[in-house]
Amino acid sequence: MDITLKKYIAHVRETDKEEQSLKKHLIGVGNSSQLFASKLGLGGYGKLIGLLHDFGKYSKEFQDYLNSAVGKINPDEDDYVDVVGKKGKIDHSTAGAQYIWNILGKKGNAARMVGQILSLCIASHHSGLIDCITPDGKDNFLRRMKKPEEKAHLEEAKSSADTEILSVTNQILRDSDLIEVLIQRIKQISENSKSSKTILYFQLGLLVRYLFSCLIDADRLDTANFESPQNARLRQSGQYIDWEKLIERLDRKLNSFDKKPGIGEIRARISAQCLKKSKEDKGLFTLTVPTGGGKTLSSLRFALHHAQEHRMERIIYVIPYTSIIDQNAEELRKILETGTDDAGSIVLEYHSNIVFEAKKSQWREKLLAENWDAPVIFTTSVQFLECLFGGGTRNTRRMHQLANSVIIFDEIQTLPIRTIHMFNNAISFLTDTCGSSFVLCTATQPLLNQVDLKKGNLSIPAQNELMDDTTPLFAELKRVEIVDKTRPNNRWSDLEIAELALKEINLNGSCLIIVNTKSTAKSIYEQCKSLVEESTKIQNDNFFHLSTNMCAVHRSDRFKNIKANLGKTPVLCVSTQLIEAGVDIDFDCVIRSIAGMDSIAQAAGRCNRNGTQKLGQVYIVNPKSEYIKMLPDIAIGKTISERIFREFNSNPESLGGDLLHPKVMKRYFQYYFFDRKDEMSYSIGDKQGLAEDNLLNMLSENTNGCSEYRRKNGNQFPVSPLRQSFMSANKTFEVIGAGTQGIIVPYGAGGRDIINELCSAFDIQKDYKLLKKAQLYTVNVYPNMIQKLNQADAIVEAQSDSGIYFLREEYYSEEFGISERLIQKMEFLNF
Q1: What is the pLDDT at residue 371?
Q2: Out of 2.60.40.1530, 2.60.120.10, 3.40.190.10, 3.40.50.300, which CATH number does the structure's domain 475-677 have?
Q3: What is the dihedral of CA 565, 569, 573, 577, to 10 degrees?
């Protein structure tokens, strides 16, 4: 087949075999990437990497592959290729990267830096960002840039490319400002790096990731819009409802609230203060408000007015747990989505449990969720961190949407300790370089501004606290008293805790017990159950247990039942800490197993939340049955809280006279961060025989990888200015700390139906909608429990070699979720 007679194509639509020309695809991606990158003043670079990202598709090898795949070349022709064998093996990304590197890599240090940044984006656009220097000391970047012509096809592509593509590309590369614009941005990052090479190179890595994100999103959008033109019409492409209209809708809701003296008046004052501060310049803010102070709507008020004041693009709520997202997102939908066509276009949820249905409104939400194309986004801290540090391309494509946005990080004290320096450097990059504003919300503000300066801390101006004076606020919103009932020498038995809870129910009406382990929660629940018949005030129907051994749907149903009964009839709930952060629930009394002071404060937020009593009681106990040695976050927090209790009992006034006073929290985090300062860089230990390392280092100077390189190359330093092990670090970030396996459980008719569908699915691995739905009925189980369930023959593989497992029905309990023992037949048949 004569290659000169053929049209160069990028894609062939599966439904009607329509062809998208390579020229049209490259121009389309270049234009979108330019638009995304222009938020940082880097539009020309975005256009360049977009024009060259698929440059290798001009090769005969790729065109023959594509034409063979769609049947345009018959199997008996000489040019036909083995489509199955060649899938994913024809390199079409190296040519564009080499095009840039061969020009800029020879022009001095500044040009080499710019060239490497741009080439990295192109070379990585199918795999995720590649390692520059690998952990074992190989110069992976230069290896790609030296890939031979027969595999990279650069010269062939240059001779075959459309004239317009070459003309625009060369025009950009000849621009006298090409090097200077990006170098100025790099100098700005350098000035903000606090004279730390670690911070400088970490943020340069984030700059690479930002441009990479622009390219990935542009490429995926252009391809998806060609494949499904009808879906293109459902996208918003940044054309959102005016902030003014959303402000009017929020004001209407705020004006409907009771502002009489008490909690209503205090919440109104907090909201007014947030409105006042919204006129401030962009930057990093804190909102330190006790639980129950109305942080969600007050921070939304700040965000809407701040976004309008500075013409910002979107508001992103980052929340620690999916269980909180549902209620907060639903609350905001009711307020903001009041127009006839607003459903799913203003408030968008994105988290691992979300399932989009086939109906048009939900399908549109799915499309918008792919790249966070909406004015108000709700996501989890896990998804947010994956967007910044995770591997592959799916989450990375959303990173550019973080620029010029208001980002509200709720319950910031839940940030994983190992990510602190990486998080701090990313936030500094987003505020200083990307023009975003951050609001760190909590009742217990961690001291992110007091960690190691050279590794990355946050500069938070004192005037950027949204509340003028937080100390009186804690006194005004004081609704509970922390009562230290821990016993140093005679810890509480589970029976004694159960007796205390039932006593409080008889006195007050409802009680919540929060403990640190699932086994202790189960034991105390059973002790309560054995005593409940003696109680005249509580019935079995109002007696609840909560733990992560239950699937998401099960926990959600349980929350609804608890809320429906509270305030109407006596309620007793025994739970692990999953109920603490952000759950809008109000008990008359709380019993909390001792943990960190931040956890104790969060638990206190579930007591007398609405101020219906004069003063609620939060009892702190130390159970005999809790074994927390394998839970370092809880164990260290517990030890420091015990120290705080001793200091408070010795001199209450030195800590504000109240165990929920801000002085207590400040001292707690000083101790906590000092004890754990060595954990904040995301250590990964030994890996494949290499020296111990951490992700902060791998994503910045990569000293271990560079040392290995020098050892192998006569003590010479790598030529490449950027030396990060991007892919190795990003993959490690994705998997470290997981340690669990998801098991699909037969909760209710929904769970049983999902299991039946999985067992009969034609291609279970590709039925993404079914797998997504199954997440709602999945429990993540640690290896020790997996072993016990296997020994009991309690888990079954849905299909041979699928790797997808479900729990037998007789091992799932209405009371406890997954059970290691066979439960009674009537128990599982009746739920």
Answers
A1: 87
A2: 3.40.50.300
A3: 60
Q: Are 287 and 298 in contact (CB under 8 A)?
A: yes
What pLDDT shows up at residue 685? 76
Cβ 489 vs Cβ 625: under 8 Å:
no
- CATH fold of 243-470: Rossmann fold (3.40.50)
> 109-123 vs 197-227: helix axis angle to the nearest 10?
40
Residue 3 has a pLDDT of 42
Q: Which pTM was predicted?
A: 0.90
Instruction: Note the pLDDT tens digit of each residue in 601-633.
Output: 999 989 988 777 788 999 999 999 999 988 889
Both structure tokens of 67: 């034409």
Among the listed residues 296, 304, 361, the one whose alpha carbon sits nearest the alpha carbon of residue 326: 296
- The answer to whether residue 305 scores a pLDDT higher than 60 is yes
pLDDT per residue as tens digits for the range 145-165: 999 999 999 999 999 999 999
Task: Give the 3-state secondary structure of residue 87.
Answer: coil
Would the CATH topology of 3-232 be identical to that of 243-470? no
Q: Beta partners for 408?
A: 317, 439
CA distance 482 to 598: 13
Torsion-angle region of residue 216: left (phi > 0), alpha (psi -120 to 50) or beta?
alpha
Amino acid 75: pLDDT: 61
- Cβ within 8 Å of residue 152, ≥6 positions away: 56, 91, 94, 95, 98
Whether the Cβ atoms of residue 703 and residue 201 lie closer than 8 Å to each other: no
- Report the C-alpha gap between 444 and 602 in whole angstroms: 9
Element containing residue 756 per DSSP (H, E): helix 748-760
Under 8 Å CB-to-CB from 463, ≥6 apart: which residues?
A: none
C-alpha span between 296 and 309 (Å, rounded): 20
Q: Is 200 exposed, middle or buried (0-12, 13-18, 19+ CB in 10 A)?
A: buried
Q: How far apart are the first and last CA of the chain?
A: 66
In angstroms, the CA 664 to CA 692 distance is 36
Size (the chain), residues: 831
Rounded to an integer, what distance in angstroms lies between the CA atom of residue 226 and that of residue 822?
A: 53
Q: In whole angstroms, how far apart are CA 540 and each of 219, 525, 549, 813?
A: 57, 12, 21, 16
Q: How far is Cα 788 from Cα 217, in angstroms, rounded to an integer? A: 44
User: Alpha-carbon distance 217 to 13, whole Å?
Assistant: 19
Beta bridge partners of 465: 286
Instruction: Quickly state the pLDDT bin for 1 (edges 50, 70, 90).
Output: very low
Bigger pLDDT: 59 vs 690 = 59
pLDDT value at 352 more than 70: no
Q: At what angle do helices 43-52 and 22-37 cross, to 10 degrees?
A: 160
Residue 478 confidence (pLDDT): 87
Q: Provide the CATH number for the domain formed by 3-232 in this structure.
A: 1.10.3210
**3 state DSSP class of 667:** helix
The neighbour count for residue 388, using CB atoms within 10 Å, is 24
List the single range of 18-27, 194-203, 685-694 with lowest mean pLDDT.
Answer: 685-694
* Tokens read off for 276: 């006042």
Give the SS3 label for residue 320: coil
Nearest to 376 by CA among 407, 355, 339, 410: 407
Domain range list for the chain: 3-232, 243-470, 475-677, 680-735, 741-829
Mean pLDDT of the 352-370 span: 61
